[in-house]
Amino acid sequence: MKHEAMPASGSEEAEVQAAIWKSSLRDYGLLLTLLVIMAFFYFLTGGISIAPLNLTNLILQNSYVVIMALGMLLIIVAFYIDLSIGSVVGFVGGTAAMFMVGFPVPGLNIFVKLPWEVVVPLALVLGGLIGCVQGYFVAYAKIPSFIVTLAGMLVFRGLTGNMLMGQFVGPFDRDFQDISAGFLPDVTDFAVFKPLLGGSHFHWGAMTIGVIAVVLMIVLGLRRWRHARAEQMETEPLALFIGKMTIFSALILFITYQLATYKGLPEVLIIMAVLILIYAFITTRTTIGRRIYAIGGNRLAAELSGIRTNRLIFLTFVNMGVLAALAGLIVAARLNSATPSAGLGFELDVIAACFIGGASAYGGVGKVMGVVIGAFVMGVMNNGMSIYGLGIYWQQVVKGIVLLTAVYVDLYQKSKE
Amino acid sequence: MNAILEMRGITKTFPGVKALADVNLVVKTGEIHAICGENGAGKSTLMKVLSGVYPYGSYEGDIVYEGETRRFDRIADSERVGIIIIHQELTLVPLLSIAENIFLGNEPAKMGVINWATAFNRTREVLKKVGLNEKPNTPVTNLGVGKQQLVEIAKALSKDVKLLILDEPTASLNEADSDALLKLLTEFRAQGITSILISHKINELAKVADSITVLRDGTTVETIDCHKEKISEGRIIKSMVGREMSDRYPHREPKIGEKLLEIKNWNVEHPHHAGREVVKGVNMHVNAGEIVGIAGLMGAGRTELAMSVFGRAYGRNVRGEATMDGKLVDLSSIQKAVACGIAYVTEDRKTLGLVLQEDIKSNVTLANLPGVAWRGVIDEAREQQVANRYRSSLNIRSSGIFQRALNLSGGNQQKVVLSKWLFAQPRVLILDEPTRGIDVGAKYEIYTIINELADAGKAVILISSEMTELLGICDRIYVMNEGKLVDEMPAADATQEKIMASIMRQYGTVQ
Questions:
Q1: pLDDT-based confidence at B34, cuts 50/70/90?
Q2: The whole model's pTM is what?
Q3: Of B241, B337, B402, the CB nearest to A233
Q4: B198 φ, ψ to 5°?
Q5: pLDDT per residue as tens digits for the range A171-187
Q6: Does A157 contact chain B (CB < 8 Å)?
Q7: What long-range pairs does B232-237 form, CB within 8 A, spacing at least 24?
Q8: pLDDT in tens, A69-98
Q9: Domains of chain B, start order
């Protein structure tokens, strides 16, 4: 009997290194795929796809997919699904629009109209309540989430139609629209800086924020990497780490530069970035995140480890409802009206983004960064194909094929390990 | 006697690991040939090479079967010539009937239309051969594990088996079922069917085997002819581990303290069949520093009792009174049981114990995440310290705490599950079959850990189907049968015969 732990021999060490390279390459493979797709559309559209105006639009159009993908990731990791989010987007957006624009209460001589500052938190609560109802049926009544949320998809789409009576409801206050169409105030907005700029419209404030973000990312990333190495944790090779940092930095700097030459940083980009950071933290560093992964990895083992599985599953649906409500508000703000078909088919883009981003269809696996990149893969394709003028039906064909290919390649790589 | 099978110089390498190095195996026609060795010695790999799971070309060496060199590309190739392997994990479809399972993928059919009359007749024939008195249309899920094992063997018989390979067939069987299975093998021997039997239970091998091949670290150590020399357990263990194991159970001076956990008049009903009592009026207690064993046959209600005490993780309508340190406690949910200091280490580590795709670190801290977190945020450095501490103190053999549980051997997986519960700082540990399916060396380590826990003042309840194990490390033994507590004895007075007698006595009075 060997009584001390076996030290990793030379060949084992090399194997571990090889395994890390492999798994890292898979992670970055996704990032490279995004870059390749961007390059492809750059040439296809003669450069329009990355022009400042279009890049701004791309972010505005995609923000809600990214935001909902964060919630969907938790649900998929826990080995569930939510098909209702597109309808929830429409329903919450519609309800919020009704209250902001105002409506007469039938039978009573009252006209209800609320300021947007009141409507926004109420709409988020409404989303949470919808999540509570669906979460109850999934977590406690044990009805498969596929069925519960399919029902939700029908019910909320129907309710939206009834409520809006086939009409567009809008417009809204300028301030509300700014959630989705507004930009951070920048140097060009203040008279003080005018002389310094000499007539240039470059948004130095936006660029500064971009540079600060890159510096922070590199400093924190490096600190983390060195700490990990010091603690003898598994670390990615330095070359890969530098490569990743370079690509990310270049991407962020390029995008902020393009945005700065146009209107600056969209407010929704900030909301999105903050949410991404929060969810990245929740999934990797908190007990709640760890437990959700454990539930998806082995529900029974998690339960027998004393984890309140039902409550956590319930909460992931509540969380999804709130994020879908937020997305509903953003969509309404962007269109400056609520329509009966708002959010139609969004669930498909969001779910596709999760799976393209490497979430496992068998539960327990998935990363926030992957899902964000996955969402942008979908977004860049949507946007690029539209500019190119590809018909909407062909767009669907292409997206379907990309989804299947991404998951196929992912599973094929895993099966080789 | 001629050799039905000769495997010559088999070498199989996985990336970076040599699983088999120049292994030779000669199996004579009509014998029961046992293969034993520690976990990771290469037994299963060798059988996978033989049955074509690893196709020809992926290994070196020759397989000579019935005088011809064979090249199997897939399992179907080896099955066609009569080599049938029955795996440790049963491969029956629970909701299908016995007949459907037996002919699954091999249905007597014309143009895709199944001839059920033929299927049922042939099912009756093979069931008779294995001595299973069940109707062919009984769903497999209604049978016990022992009978399911017999269905697997019947399935092999339906395929005109010449060489039957059984991988740990008795691992999940109680002693009576195991004996019946071994007797069946001797009957097959009389009919000229050759068997290869892989097992950790050396006493069983000694009972039926004609020859025994011992593997160690991927090489053949020796083949023992059981008719030429008298074999003993010690003799084989020595060959397996490479040295003598004088004592299979580590010594311990029990220091037994106050009564810690007591349950009174404990009743549990089956979760799906209301009113069917699986635990009936059990009274039981365990003291601090004491190791208490629960003996019994499969289906005696031991796991059901343990899991129902552990926060009603099993059963419905759980009634009874539980006290700790003489005070009534509420054990109505797993969270409450854990908070009271009770831990249950499951018998089924893969489906109930581990998150297989997660690493050792995440599995170790899973039951006590707040122990490494501050306000819900995990302190990674502290978590790694904890994981490293258990990795070294329990001697978990791995490349590091970031190795995934999936890639660990059975014994090391068991240690990870144990670590998880040790880190939850329990006062009462319920261990359900903690050494099932793990090798002799790892078993000794687990026993040592159990002893240390008792010495540290914890109360340990040990459920085991291996009576020698209960006799070897317990202070006191309860005997359960059919949901009832039928006997209690100090381990010093207990023998296997006495335990069996108290089980049988109950049958005597019932019938």
A1: very high
A2: 0.80
A3: B402
A4: -105, 125
A5: 998 989 988 888 888 87
A6: no
A7: B232/B206, B233/B202, B233/B203, B233/B206, B236/B36, B236/B202, B236/B205, B236/B206, B236/B212, B237/B202, B237/B440
A8: 999 999 999 999 999 999 999 999 999 999
A9: 3-241 (3.40.50.300), 288-316+329-510 (3.40.50.300)
